[in-house]
Amino acid sequence: MYRFLLTRQWLITMLIALLLIPATIKLGFWQLHRHEARVARNELIGKALTASPVPFDSLSAAPGAAVPSALTWRAVTATGQYDPAHEFVVRKRTDANGTLGYFVITPLKLSDGKGTVLINRGWVPSGDGATQYPPVPAAPTGEVTLTGRLRSDETTGSSGGWVKDRAGLPDRQFNLINTEQQSKETGTTLLGGYLELTASTPAPADQPQLIPEPNHSDIGPHMAYAIQWWLFTTMIPVGVWVLIRREAKDRRKQAAPEVPLEALPA
Questions:
Q1: How much helix, strand and coil, in percent to the nearest 5, is found in the chain?
Q2: What is the Cα–Cα distance from 31 to 232, expressed in whole angstroms?
Q3: Considering only 185-199, 218-232, 235-249, which range has the smallest mean pLDDT?
Q4: pLDDT tens-digit map of 26-56
Q5: pLDDT of residue 261
Q6: Any idea which of 67-71, 206-210, 251-255 has the lowest mean pLDDT?
Q7: Terminus of the chain with fewer CB atoms < 10 Å: N or C?
Q8: SS3 (DSSP) at 192
Q9: Residue 111, pLDDT score
Q10: DSSP single-letter state for residue 259
Q11: Which run of H or of E encompasses 38?
């Protein structure tokens, strides 16, 4: 009855089904691992943001040194004076509403003499053109004490390739926040990583729009996707069995002898 399963068409169908089953199982686990990574990231960020602030220079090292992932987003403080002469902006950055503009990066010379820290003072909208330096609120003068989030240097690799480090940009405009790059550019000794500003004492009269803290409550759709892939895995053999039964039924109908009309009862 089921000899048709040995035909070329059905052998190919069965082979495809057998290949799809491990593939969909693997895709489900891939989404599960993404879910687990997202949950772990959220927990790490939550702990970092709620921890008591520590001095920036107690966690940072030389220019270009990578900030350990366990310390990223850590609440830090820094006391010193801004160096507006080496201020720059980072292009193609958006605010909380997705509006394109710039991040304003101003170095802060630490009062303890241990170096200089790059401070992301926040976001400003684009100016009259991409070649002109945008209007930026002046950095406060005198000694300030800052609180913020510790961030690692940006690189093309860490951005997933979407931020390119291109040369030939207008004066004091860059695509990355990178201490190694800025140390070479300005000759200033910078500590690795940078501070994403959340508060300043004394508070300035005017400042760029502060960057909101990262979302660490959204777990994303990955678990739902994992379940969908695994449901699809169970549907593959069921679907193949339904097709086999339907084919067998159709073949039985075709093989049944036809009854002549004259043999039918009146």
A1: 35, 25, 40
A2: 14
A3: 235-249
A4: 999 999 999 998 888 888 878 878 888 999 8
A5: 54
A6: 251-255
A7: C
A8: strand
A9: 93
A10: P
A11: helix 8-50
> Would you tell me the crossing angle of helices 222-255 and 8-50 to the nearest 10 degrees?
170
Q: What does the pLDDT look like over 151-177, one tens digit per residue? A: 999 887 765 666 666 777 888 899 999
Is the separation of the CB atoms in 111 and 80 below 8 Å? yes
Q: Strand runs (DSSP E) across the chain, as ranges?
A: 54-55, 75-82, 88-94, 100-110, 116-125, 143-151, 173-174, 190-201
For the chain, state the CA radius of gyration: 31
Q: Please, which residues bridge with residue 147 across strands?
A: 77, 199
Tokens standing for 133? 């330096």
Measured CA to CA, the distance from residue 148 to residue 215 in angstroms comes to 16
The secondary structure element, H or E, covering residue 56 is: none
* H-run or E-run covering 158: none
**139 closest CA partner among 232, 235, 56, 207:** 207
The owner of tokens 């004076």 is 81
Q: Cα separation of 190 and 186, whole Å?
A: 10
| Whole-number Cα distances in Å, 14 to 4, 11, 27 | 12, 5, 20
